[in-house]
Specification:
By secondary structure, the protein is mainly alpha-helical. The protein is about 80% helix and about 0% strand. The protein has helices spanning about 10-15, 20-35, 40-60, 65-90.
Length: about 90
């Protein structure tokens, strides 16, 4: 998602982000999830989905993301992960 303004944290992040670094991060997370087992796969998927939905929604509304938009996407991703991790306990399982 492009940055909404030509200055600021989001612009710097967008300019410095590279695919090789994203690939290394994704492979690292995949390795940690594999080591943890399937118990973290569902919460991680919820977290990823929540972060993507918020990021894409805000990016569409603002025609790009701001630093606050990235922060909101991160916070919603964390909430999605924590909600999905707590769901079996809430349901009594």
């Amino acid at each position: 998602v492009p940055s909404a303004r030509p200055t600021g944290l989001a612009h710097t992040f967008h300019q410095e982000a590279r695919w090789p670094a994203a690939l290394v991060a994704a492979l690292t997370v995949a390795g940690v999830l594999w080591a943890q087992g399937w118990a973290t796969a569902l919460p991680a998927t919820w977290g990823l989905g929540a972060g993507l939905v918020v990021g894409l929604y805000m990016g569409g509304r603002l025609r790009g993301l701001t630093g606050d938009g990235y922060g909101a996407a991160i916070e919603f991703a964390e909430l999605g992960f924590l909600f999905a991790a707590a769901l079996p306990r809430i349901r009594g399982g």
